[in-house]
């Protein structure tokens, strides 16, 4: 009996993992988007970890305008950022400055020097379209900071439990960070920083959890619950392609105006031979 239950569990786990990795990015299913970290299970824990990464990168950003897309992005502070003018876009968050759809941002092309997308791809019905829209409003050499949930993690496996499927973050669509990086490269973005962290889920024993996290973070970083990516928009191909054809050198005969001594000897020899015959 126990063996049968174990086999059924692992078979269902394999099916879920394969569907998670191979599932199409676009969906017609409605996704309830959380507009605050209080609407996400262990949201305060995730927000603190992401805030530490943002505080590290904000002083490295320069420009005039910064876009925070979504309520989760708007709730994270960026006071240490050199970009003073910051706009938060969402439909329900109390921190928003502009109320608009993420697929149709009311800004002209190349308006922002940096864009912050915290967990926005996980709750988007069309992440490709969302990235294209963000790319439209980002200046050349602008920065894109984004994060998401890792499906191949302890926190991701908790979504297999029936009572968690309708709760955030498991009601969203988690993507592997490698897949997101492929999407960014197709849009000609250079990934300059990538980190997967939070191997252990949130617990009440913070001291013990932090100690174990420091030990397991390096060998098990690939199965961390969260990922954080910093990419930069480039205007030239990142990998130049060499042409298959090559120009071959063509040797052309040179016109010599002077006759060499050897040629003169051969000419005299031919003339003497003709006279003798």
From TrEMBL:
Keyword Transmembrane helix assigned: no
InterPro entries linked to this entry: Methyltransf_11, SAM-dependent_MTases_sf
Gene3D superfamilies assigned to the protein according to its UniProt record, in alphabetical order: Vaccinia Virus protein VP39
Keywords: Methyltransferase, Transferase
GO biological process, one term: methylation
Any GO MF annotation of the entry: S-adenosylmethionine-dependent methyltransferase activity
SUPFAM superfamilies given in the database record: S-adenosyl-L-methionine-dependent methyltransferases
Domain Methyltransferase type per the UniProt entry, residue ranges: 96-145
Keyword Methyltransferase: yes
Name of the protein in question: SAM-dependent methyltransferase
Organism: Photobacterium angustum
């Amino acid at each position: 009996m126990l063996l049968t239950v174990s086999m059924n569990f692992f078979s269902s786990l394999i099916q879920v993992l394969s569907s998670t990795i191979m599932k199409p990015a676009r969906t017609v299913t409605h996704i309830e988007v959380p507009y605050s970290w209080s609407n996400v299970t262990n949201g305060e824990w995730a927000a603190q970890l992401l805030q530490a990464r943002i505080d590290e990168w904000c002083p490295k950003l320069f420009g005039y305008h910064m876009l925070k897309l979504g309520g989760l992005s708007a709730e994270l502070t960026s006071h240490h950022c050199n970009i003073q003018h910051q706009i938060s876009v969402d439909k329900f968050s109390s921190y928003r400055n502009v109320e608009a759809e993420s697929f149709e941002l009311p800004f002209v092309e190349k308006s922002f020097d940096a864009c912050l997308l915290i967990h926005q791809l996980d709750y988007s019905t069309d992440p490709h379209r969302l990235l294209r829209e963000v790319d439209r409003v980002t200046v050349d050499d602008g920065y894109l900071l984004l994060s998401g949930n890792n499906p191949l993690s302890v926190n991701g496996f908790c979504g297999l439990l029936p009572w968690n499927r309708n709760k955030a973050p498991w009601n969203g669509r988690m993507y592997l960070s490698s897949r997101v990086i492929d999407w960014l490269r197709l849009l000609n973005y250079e990934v300059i920083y990538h980190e997967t962290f939070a191997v252990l889920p949130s617990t009440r024993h913070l001291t013990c959890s932090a100690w174990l996290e420091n030990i397991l973070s390096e060998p098990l970083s690939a199965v961390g619950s969260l990922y954080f990516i910093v990419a930069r928009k480039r205007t030239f191909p990142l990998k130049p392609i060499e042409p298959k054809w090559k120009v071959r050198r063509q040797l052309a005969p040179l016109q010599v105006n002077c006759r060499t001594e050897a040629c003169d000897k051969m000419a005299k020899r031919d003339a003497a031979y003709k006279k003798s015959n």
